[in-house]
Amino acid sequence: MFKWRLATNSWRGLKISFLTLFLLLACASVALAGDPSGNTTGGINDIAAATAGQPTLAEVAAQVGKNKIGINFVWTLITGFLVFFMQAGFALVETGFTRAKNAAHTMAMNLMVFLVGAIGYYLVGFAFEFGGVGALSALGGTAPLTQELAVNGWGLLGHSAFFLSSGGSYDVGVFTLFLFQMVFMDTAVTIPTGAMAERVKFSAVVIGTFFIAMILYPIFGNWVWGGGWLAQLGSKLGLGHGVVDFAGSGVVHAIGGSAALASALVLGPRLGKYGKDGKINVFPGHDIPMAILGTIILFFGWFGFNPGSTLAGTDLRISVVAVNTMMAGAVGGFTAMMTMWLIFKKPDPSMMANGTLAGLVAITAPSAFVSASSAVIIGAIAGALVITSVLFVDRKLKIDDPVGAISVHMVNGIWGIIATGIFADGTYGDGLNGVTGSVSGLLYGNPGQFLAQLIDVGVILIWGFGLSFFFFKLLHATWGMRVKPEDELAGLDIPEMGMLAYPDHLLRTESESE
Amino acid sequence: MQKIEAIIRPGKLNEITEALADAGVLGITVSNVLGCGRQKGHTQVYRGQEVQIRLLPKVKLEIACLETQSEQIVEVITRLARTGQVGDGKIFITPVQESIRIRTGERGETAL
């Protein structure tokens, strides 16, 4: 006892000495040789010039151009990093809304899709999507991306920059675009995992991810963003600016959501979800706080997703995009919350989360082209739409979508595309898709633009749903997409992944139930 | 020797264990349990879908004691666990044949 107390006392003495030393050091006066106010750091001497300190006008102009592109690079990369972080949001939302016995499986799928998606997109996805996009002036003119396969001038498929090396694509601008577009594709591949959760084979999701990352997503992306035929509907047929999808309500969310619908249809519902007597059983999510945290992380990431899609920090429209994103997400969540409160007497947290995400998905396409009041209306409709859709999918269609991926991403992605064609107010988008003048929608007297958006919706249904349904049917018939029933009942963590998400938790519930 | 099993509302646990400690009860085993009785269940709504919750969460106390102590323990539990509403819980008393302290191997009443 005495020895122990002695040891404690000497350790306490040591801690006091350290603290004293630290305080003394902190108080010591510093010699003012540096530039603490920042007044003299940076100036004419920092401009590269033949004669230091006396740059010519051309040298100053060169520096200004460099700065502009530098700002755009930094903006695009940092917003891309934010979009990458949305992967964490998806993982938390999907895992929180599903059961504890599958948590390691659901969580791991959300990491895996990024790993697999990055490889698939690097191999061919990026080349198919952006190989023929042409020079992007915001990124300094991505010169090597000029190979587009076209029929009668209608672009179908890019084919340069395979594995970021073919066709001179080892280029800073191309790499910036690749990073940003890869994380966008990643968002699309992670959407179906929520609809397939708790019953899908991990290996089937690996194969499905390669398909989405290499074929389904990039080819459609080429048609809208890579200079393909949907973007050309304006310049060739006079339908407004052609299909306009600023940050991907259609390209990313409706395509990912269509794949979610197709995969959930092919897989069938979780065992016991729909009783023989038509009774709908509920499998409550195991961690609502996790799902809410995921929703907030996704919202944060969306500030990269939409404003970053200018690819230019020097395009001052970014403030409008950011505020529209903020308002539509907030109003979407609010509308869903109030609707649930009125109808079901409680502000259901899971529907608040779905409503918030629905508002964000819906504003993704129109975010750069509409006013704040339009963003509020778009978000409000999205919040009501997502509840209607979740109930319809669950009760009428009896398609089992544990997290609401179909309703959030497909239904509201399509709403976002249509909303762009209605609410675009003619203040932005001059020169977009090779059409002069700014983008305006139905309410601003441009039915052509609205028609282009409707064509986009039709193509999403045929390409996004049709092709992925065919693919998943084929995969199910050959490889098999569904786990064994006994594994599904026991939980997928051990049979599929070899380890439990919560070993202690399971030990306790087992001993309680036996 | 007797064993008292009391099934109570979860929110009453702290108050009761404190009062029992004051009354000289040394050992209590507590578990989270699910069960149903006259309270029946209630209906929840999850994502717009009604869920019938039949089993409600309760807390079970197990106390081994001498016959002479049991009435006092029952009095403490009933007094503190009672709200007067359906769902306050139940107490069961059963005789205990033998008790053994694992550490020493003592048996009988001294092992309590």
Sheet of most strands of chain A: 2 strands, antiparallel
**Can you list the strand order of the major beta sheet of chain A?**
1-2
Oligomer: heterodimer
Number of strands of chain A: 2
What would you say this structure looks like, in words?
The complex is a heterodimer of chains A (about 525) and B (about 110). By secondary structure, chain A is an all-alpha fold. Chain A has helices at about 1-25, 55-95, 105-130, 170-195, 200-225, 235, 250-265, 290-305, 320-345, 350-365, 370-395, 405-425, 445-480, 485-490, 495, 505-514, and strands spanning about 150, 155-160. Chain A has a single domain (about 70-490), classed as Ammonium transporter fold (Orthogonal Bundle), CATH 1.10.3430. Chain A is globular, with a radius of gyration of 26 Å. Chain A starts with a helix and ends with a helix. Chain B has about 110 residues and is α+β, with helices and mostly antiparallel strands. Chain B has a single domain, classed as Alpha-Beta Plaits (2-Layer Sandwich). In chain B, the strands form two sheets. A four-stranded antiparallel β-sheet of chain B has the order 2-5-1-6, with helices on one face. In chain B, strand 3 and strand 4 form a beta hairpin. Chain B is elongated and about 60 Å long. The interface of A and B includes residues 343, 346, 391 and 395 of A.
What's this model, at a glance?
The complex is a heterodimer of chains A (514) and B (112). Chain A is 63% helix and 2% strand.
Secondary structure elements and their pairing?
The complex is a heterodimer of chains A (514) and B (112).
Chain A: H1 2-27, H2 57-96, H3 103-130, E1 148-151, E2 154-158, H4 172-196, H5 202-225, H6 233-237, H7 249-267, H8 288-305, H9 318-344, H10 349-364, H11 372-396, H12 405-423, H13 447-478, H14 485-490, H15 493-497, H16 503-513
Antiparallel strand pairs in A: 1-2
Chain B: E1 2-8, H1 13-22, E2 29-35, E3 42-46, E4 49-53, E5 56-65, H2 67-81, E6 90-95
Antiparallel strand pairs in B: 1-5, 1-6, 2-5, 3-4
Helix pairs in contact in B: 1-2
